TrEMBL record:
Protein name (Swiss-Prot/TrEMBL): PP0621 family protein
Lineage: superkingdom: Bacteria
Record keywords: Membrane, Transmembrane, Transmembrane helix
Positions of transmembrane segments: 6-24
Classification of source organism: Bacteria, Pseudomonadati, Pseudomonadota, Gammaproteobacteria, Pseudomonadales
């Protein structure tokens, strides 16, 4: 009966440690924020929206590529 009691307490202690470690590891994981989306800008030439970090700017206007930056803003009826 003493061996059974010892095995029972060892199992309880290991289960407690396992549950505690799972709780602690889940608490440390950073949760992605929903409002953490990259700010988007619109290309002055073609109108495509791209992340601001990938866009090229000139004269307070944004462009999606070097070619569109060189062509400049599109004029005309849109």
């Amino acid at each position: 009966m003493g061996l059974f009691r010892l095995l029972f307490w060892v199992a309880i202690i290991f289960a407690g440690i396992w549950i505690w470690r799972r709780f602690v590891s889940n608490a440390r994981k950073p949760r992605p924020r929903e409002d953490a989306a990259a700010p988007m800008v619109r290309c002055a030439h073609c109108g495509v929206h791209i992340p601001k970090t990938q866009a090229l700017s000139q004269d307070q206007q944004w462009y999606c590529s070097q070619a569109h930056l060189e062509q400049g803003p599109r004029t005309g009826d849109r």
